Amino acid sequence: MSIPKDTHKADRVGAVKLARVLSNVISPPTMFAGTGLALGVYERGWWPGFAWGAFYAIVIALTPMLAIVYLLRTGRIGDLHMSATHERHIPYLTAAVSGAVVYALLALLGGPALLRCLAVFTVITLSALGLINSRWLISIHATAAAATWLIITLVFGTTAGLVALPLAVLICLVRLYLRRHTPAQVVAGAALGLTVVLAMRAAGCFVV
């Protein structure tokens, strides 16, 4: 893979800067957190649902992000994008463990079924991504974007899915534009997200 366009600070201007901001802001933790909030509110209503969704979002999104910040500060990873495969091991493990903890607490406390499904999805995909990334830099942005789009479509309907689709495509294109991933890595990431969601749907998850 060629050198990413945003590797050097001097290059982070114009379209490259905008693409980098989009990639950082609409990140996998952000997508999972937003999906969790939406599913919680959908199943349990505004206040109880928002509380459940916020609990999911905080644990799922904040824990891996704190791990990444720690790794950045200690020099164990070079940047937020973690372009080297070995830099992603600890964040992936942290996210998978966080998903398992969230599922256990949701099951114990009677949390929303949709959030329990989302927690299982997190464990499965992050474990798979961790294994794949030990050999190959698959795109977690593409995994999260494709899965988020499909979950929104299944739960909220076709219209909501059509609204979310351009954003999912944009995230994948941004990763390609920044040269953070090859087309094969983006396609593989999207395929993983879609496959896991569809398999879970067949098992009874994300059904409303």
Sequence-ordered SSE layout with sheet pairings:
Layout: H1 14-25, H2 28-44, H3 46-73, H4 89-109, H5 113-133, H6 140-156, H7 158-177, H8 183-202
Helix pairs in contact: 1-7, 2-3, 2-5, 2-6, 3-4, 4-5, 5-8, 6-7, 6-8
In brief, what are we looking at here?
The protein is mainly alpha-helical and 208 residues long. Helices cover 75% and strands 0% of the residues. It is built from eight helices and no strands.
Characterization of the model:
The structure is a single chain. By secondary structure, this protein is mainly alpha-helical. It has one domain (9-202). The protein is 75% helix and 0% strand. The chain has eight helices and no strands. α3 (46-73) runs antiparallel to α4. The N and C termini lie far apart (42 Å).
What radius of gyration results from the CA coordinates? 17 Å
Mean pLDDT: 89
Helix content: over 70%
Terminal CA distance reads: 42 Å
**Estimated structural class:** mainly alpha
Q: Count of DSSP E strands?
A: 0
Count of alpha and pi helical runs: 8
Q: Strand-residue fraction?
A: under 5%
Shape: globular
Uncertain runs: none
N-to-C series of helices and strands: HHHHHHHH
Characterize the biggest β-sheet.
Answer: none
Please tell me the total number of domains: 1
Labels describing this entry:
single chain, 208 residues, mainly alpha, globular
